[in-house]
Automatic annotation (TrEMBL), chain A:
This is Cobalt/nickel transport system permease protein. It is a multi-pass membrane protein. It comes from the Bacteria. The keyword Membrane applies. The chain crosses the membrane at residues 40-60, 72-97, 103-125, 137-164, 184-204. It comes from Geodermatophilus siccatus. Signal peptide: none annotated. The keyword Cell wall biogenesis/degradation does not apply.
Automatic annotation (TrEMBL), chain B:
This is Cobalt/nickel transport protein. It comes from the Bacteria. Pfam families: PDGLE. InterPro entries: PDGLE_dom. Its main location: membrane. One of its GO terms (cellular component) is plasma membrane. Residues 6-96 form the PDGLE domain.
Length: 233, 106
């Protein structure tokens, strides 16, 4: 979901650019708390990985496709503020070098795929992680649901922007129906990829997964010489 | 970075390069969700070419490379490396350089 130039009028694009700039400024401060000697190298890699996986569109239904947005994936791996920075770099590289997503729409895309997707995904993830058992399965379920919901919500926020500043004179209900339906399906792919990648990293380095810190504490508490740590299965 | 941390990092980078350089040529060429929805609702025509459309890497191809697979794969590899350098430098600049973080490394 990379918004091209031309879909939204200039005032709306300027407003989303201001929102994006504010969000990135906050993220630059917040990420300092998430990044240390151990996690910083993983953060750069996470951005590169999200760029790579975003290139692989998977088919959804007849004649349309979707790709990972990666906001929640990055947030679970390296923390939500760092995730906003990762997605901003990815979207900037895509817009400037690859002409994927418009230049005047860059603020819109950072707002949707960076701020909205990360905030919604992380909010849902944290809520579920608190409600579910502190196990690998609990973390992965929370990640899957958070990743899933982040996609249709970001799509509906685009519809909201279109309602305010869409250049074309098209009924908003029509746009909402088309955007919502297809992005529910893309959200399923987002959840599948997110769960697979988080699961793989949890299997080898659970200590490096930002969203699994509670799991690590529980594992340390439960660890006895004779028992298998829950995170090591 | 610890040895296991380094292993994870190298495996992750190789995975990203393979996904962008090779797997990407098997990606679905159908319009993505937004493009499809714009077409269905009748506003796809309002899309304008980006000012970056003349970039030598526009649309994930390297201009001058004829083979579609090679061109796309090369563009993907360049994109992964550029993203890694930019995001990596940014996060390294922002990281906490405390002694406790250094000694906590296993």
């Amino acid at each position: 979901m990379h918004v091209p130039d031309g879909f939204l009028d200039a005032p709306t694009s300027a407003a989303t650019a201001a929102v994006a700039a504010g969000g990135v400024a906050l993220a630059l401060r917040g990420a300092r708390r998430e990044l240390d000697e151990r996690t910083a190298p993983l953060a750069g890699l996470t951005a590169a990985f999200v760029f790579a996986v975003q290139m692989v569109n998977f088919p959804v239904g007849a004649g349309t496709s979707g790709h990972l947005m990666g906001g929640l994936l990055a947030a679970v791996l390296v923390g939500p503020w760092t995730a906003v920075l990762c997605l901003t770099v990815v979207l900037g590289v895509q817009a400037l070098l690859f002409a994927d997503g418009g230049l005047t729409a860059l603020g819109t895309n950072v707002t949707l795929l960076g701020l909205v997707a990360v905030a919604v995904g992380w909010g849902v993830f944290r809520l579920l992680a608190r409600l579910l058992p502190t196990t690998r399965g609990g973390v992965l379920t929370a990640a899957g649901v958070g990743a899933f919901l982040s996609v249709p919500v970001a799509a509906l926020v685009f519809v909201g922007l279109f309602a305010v500043g869409g250049v074309a004179d098209v009924p908003v209900g029509t746009v909402a129906a088309a955007m919502g339906g297809v992005h529910v399906l893309i959200g399923l792919g987002e959840a599948a990829i997110t769960v697979a990648v988080v699961g793989a990293v949890l299997a080898v380095r659970p200590d490096l997964v930002h969203g699994a810190r509670a799991l690590r504490r529980a594992t340390l508490l439960a660890e006895r010489p004779a028992s298998v740590p829950a995170g090591a299965r | 970075m610890s040895r296991r941390g380094r292993t994870l990092w190298v495996v992750g980078l190789v995975a990203a390069l393979v996904v962008a350089g090779v797997v990407s040529s098997y990606a679905s060429a159908s319009p993505d969700g937004l493009e499809w929805a714009a077409e269905q609702s009748g506003f796809l025509s309002t899309a304008e070419d980006s000012a970056a459309a003349t970039s030598p890497l526009a649309d994930y191809g390297v201009s001058g490379v004829d083979s579609e697979r090679l061109s796309g794969g090369l563009a993907g590899v360049i994109g992964v490396l550029v993203t890694l350098v930019l995001a990596g430098s940014l996060t390294l600049l922002l990281r906490r350089r405390s002694r406790s973080a250094a000694t906590a490394e296993d």
